[in-house]
Amino acid sequence: xxxxxxxxxxxxSGVGKGTVCxxxxxxxxxxxxxxxxxxxxxxxGEVDGVNYFFKxxxxxxxxxxxxxxxxxxxxxxxxxxxxxxxVEQKLAEGRDVILEIEVQGAMKVxxxxxxxxxxxxxxxxxDELKDRIRxxxxxxxxxxxxxxxxxxxxxxxxxxxxxxxxxxxxxxxCKRIESIIxxxxxxxxxxx
Length: 192
Prior knowledge:
It is found in: Cytoplasm. The protein is α/β, with parallel strands linked by helices.
């Protein structure tokens, strides 16, 4: 059986990773979403085990100690990480797995899975990114400014990715990512 592809989708906070990922999952039956663990509080409508595994700081630290995370990072005061078991099981079953994670986490995954497909999602502009974050209505202005400073630093790391996709329209961004996945499945090294 052919092993699945690990697809890592990341980019700055507010770029629309979650929205694009949800749209991709609706369109693509062969794609499995990897749910991340986090210590941040759930936003309105978020469900434990669906959007994230919401953990206390103590629970998350135990996962780190037991080496049960593929990657983890602290971002704006909260921890985020990818549980190992789920990802490895799905890849072994021949399923493609998509990780929707922050840039710090993507760089750690790249160390462990250099053959993963790394896609950087970009906003049409930094002004648009700030408007999207502000539009959530969940962040105070000083947090928005902090997120924007981090976004500029993260965009500078784009050179470590295989692909860059601008999220100008969700459908177009999804089509571009679907094309990348198809092309990766057609590579000679994937089919050897």
